[in-house]
Amino acid sequence: MRGRNHWLILGLAVLAAALGGYVQHRNRPVDTPSPGLLGQALPPLVLPDLDGKPHRLADYRERRVLLNFWASWCAPCLREMPALAEAQAKFGQQGAIVVGIAMDEPLHVRAFLAAHPVDYPILIGEMGPPSTSLKLGNTRQVLPYSMLIDADGRILAAHAGPLSNAQLTEWLAPASTGR
Fold first, then answer.
1. pTM given for the model
2. Nearest Cα to Cα of residue 134 among 120, 122, 147
3. Under-70 pLDDT residues of the chain
4. What is the residue extent of each domain of the chain?
5. Comparing C-alpha atoms, which of 63, 58, 65 is closest to residue 44?
6. Which of 51, 52, 59, 141 is most buried, with most CB under 10 Å away?
7. At the top level of CATH, which class does the domain 31-172 belong to?
8. Which residues have a Cβ under 8 Å from the Cβ of 91 and sit 6 or more positions away?
């Protein structure tokens, strides 16, 4: 009997520790990239579009850029896309640009976009370790994941999860100073 109680207590202790770790992990702030990235220049990245043509993210300098990491299998990503397209239409003429980075197979991305086109550039992220989103501070590998880059190419802010309309306006409006 004594041995059975010992294992029961040990099992409950392990379960409590695991649950505590999970709660702590879920409750940590996610609106900032790795501290070393905030305020730093965007690392030099070259990503292909759906036709395989390479695009340097540095080519978007002199514009406020919202990088949005998504995938065709990610329901929150897909719900966020109409708001991103609306923000691009609203703020694009004022110098801001949304750039979608699909963390997905090009075949799936092409099929999704054929049914749900967007008016902003879509590039294909590197999936293999380290992924493009991990290189840009998405340590939890959560999608959607968005990053705001200023006109000088510096990382201003990041956010894991869908962006609200208020956040999109704050991030992309010309008078915005970012975060």
1. 0.77
2. 147
3. 1-2, 6, 10-36, 175-179
4. 1-30, 31-172
5. 58
6. 141
7. alpha beta
8. 172, 173, 174
Nearest to 66 by CA among 98, 39, 18, 108: 98
- Alpha carbon distance 149, 61 (integer Å): 9
**Token digits for 50?**
């759906």
CA distance 126 to 136: 12
Q: Which amino acid is at 47?
A: L
Q: What is the pLDDT of residue 2?
A: 64
Does residue 79 contact residue 168 with C-beta atoms inside 8 Å?
no
- Cross-strand partners of 145: 69, 160
Amino acid symbol at 146: S
Tokens of 167: 């956040």
Place of tokens 């409750």: 27
Helix (H) or strand (E) holding 159, with range, is strand 155-160
Cβ–Cβ < 8 Å for 84, 47: no
Q: What is the DSSP letter of 170?
A: H
CB 152 within 8 A of CB 42: no
Structure tokens that stand for 8 in this block: 């029961």
| Residue 134: CA count within 13 A, CB half-sphere | 9
CB 168 within 8 A of CB 78: no
